[in-house]
């Protein structure tokens, strides 16, 4: 909606989303509480645009917006909510009020509803006690044996201490990516054929630059300045092509996953489900500890492949880079803005080519979601082009994109930067 509605409306929604995502964090400190207070204060300031335009002329007497003001004190008193939803009272209302009401004869309903809840609580307590004593199942029954055989081993939390008291170094997995279990059926034997099939120019040269940095990890020479004469040779070798990879990362604030671990599939498929191509975007670790997108890069995966070189397996990805337009997030949306990177070739009429590189997949953090940045001056011709645009063409059609930090709580923690105090 940026560029289509009043900027104050965009800022209002951003402030409230920031507050909600900050409240969902699994660990809070003074800094996060201060950020929540500022986000809520800014939200209450900018929401006046709805009163000024007559949308909420009577004011903002809304229970959930009112309860947001108590979150900070309750977090200090009881700890992080960590997924507790304010709708829990509605779900309890169904069990404690609506269902007992339907079971009653509507006469003297309050007494009968309380009696129903009391009996249900006693039955639940008795069942828990009988189950603990083993009184609800026969010790040698077929169901009991089946459950015992199918019982899974306990999953060790990535940050839990070892049971034997040994060192836990290396047990925490913040991010890991692995190729699909099987490569595609047809494999290209030649790098040149692979480059033509996926429309990647100078693929062999990019692989040679990758091998130089991989074999000499202490080198600080930039890939753009690296001479091919210094790179190791790469002849035609057997290359296995994959159409997907799985990213696993530690996201304790998200409701999905076991023991805080979540995973998602990153795809680079020229015929996704026998249709159009699908090349996902990813976050790439650039080795910096800077906050937000200053410590990460954004790229689009063009190819996933692996090969053996000098007896060592290399799992790689061809990435088309997206550069930041500014060194800070957008003022209205709070999201970073990126644009595809291109290299201008020599020659007046030579077209620019995508700026691509070959990297090891262990530098990829997770998938990224880009939203096209709406042009504030839209012409009639632009609307006609939008009507013909398909979803798989968006990344090639638009020139700038927002990096969506609201896709989940893990992405928010990666990209969110605290705003300066005004």
From TrEMBL:
Q: Which domain of life is it from?
A: Eukaryota
Q: Region Disordered: what ranges?
A: 140-171
Q: Where is the composition biased (Basic residues)?
A: 146-156
Its protein name is Uncharacterized protein
Question: Which organism does this sequence originate in?
Answer: Lentinus brumalis
């Amino acid at each position: 909606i940026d560029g289509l509605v009043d900027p104050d409306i965009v800022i209002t929604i951003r402030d409230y989303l920031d507050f909600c995502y900050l409240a969902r964090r699994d660990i809070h400190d003074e800094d996060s509480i201060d950020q929540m207070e500022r986000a809520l204060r800014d939200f209450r300031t900018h929401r006046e645009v709805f009163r000024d335009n007559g949308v909420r002329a009577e004011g903002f007497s809304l229970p959930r917006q009112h309860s947001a003001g108590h979150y900070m004190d309750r977090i200090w008193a009881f700890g992080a909510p960590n997924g507790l939803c304010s709708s829990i009272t509605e779900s309890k209302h169904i069990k404690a009020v609506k269902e007992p009401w339907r079971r009653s004869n509507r006469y003297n309903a309050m007494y009968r509803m309380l009696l129903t809840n009391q009996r249900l609580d006693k039955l639940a307590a008795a069942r828990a006690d009988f189950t603990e004593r083993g009184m609800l199942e026969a010790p040698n029954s077929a169901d009991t044996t089946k459950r015992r055989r199918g019982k899974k081993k306990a999953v060790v939390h990535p940050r839990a201490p070892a049971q034997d008291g040994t060192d836990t170094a290396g047990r925490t997995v913040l991010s890991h990516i692995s190729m699909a279990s099987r490569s595609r059926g047809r494999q290209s034997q030649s790098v040149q054929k692979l480059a033509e099939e996926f429309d990647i120019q100078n693929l062999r040269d990019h692989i040679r630059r990758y091998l130089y940095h991989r074999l000499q990890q202490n080198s600080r020479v930039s890939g753009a300045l690296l001479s091919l004469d210094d790179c190791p040779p790469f002849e035609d070798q057997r290359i296995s092509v994959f159409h997907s990879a799985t990213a696993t990362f530690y996201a304790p604030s998200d409701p999905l996953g076991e023991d805080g671990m979540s995973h998602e599939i990153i795809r680079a498929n020229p015929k996704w489900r026998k249709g159009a191509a699908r090349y996902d975007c990813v976050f790439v670790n650039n080795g910096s500890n800077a906050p937000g997108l200053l410590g990460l890069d954004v790229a689009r995966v063009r190819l996933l492949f692996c090969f053996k070189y000098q007896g060592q397996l290399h799992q790689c990805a061809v990435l088309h880079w997206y550069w930041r337009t500014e060194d800070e997030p957008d003022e209205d949306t709070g999201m970073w803005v990126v644009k595809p990177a291109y290299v201008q070739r020599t020659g007046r009429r030579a077209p620019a080519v995508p700026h691509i590189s070959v990297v090891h997949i262990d530098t990829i953090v997770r998938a990224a979601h880009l939203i096209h940045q709406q042009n504030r001056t839209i012409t009639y011709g632009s609307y006609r082009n939008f009507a013909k645009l398909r979803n798989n063409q968006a990344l090639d059609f638009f020139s700038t994109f927002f990096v969506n930090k609201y896709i989940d709580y893990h992405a928010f923690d990666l990209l969110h930067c605290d705003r300066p105090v005004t």
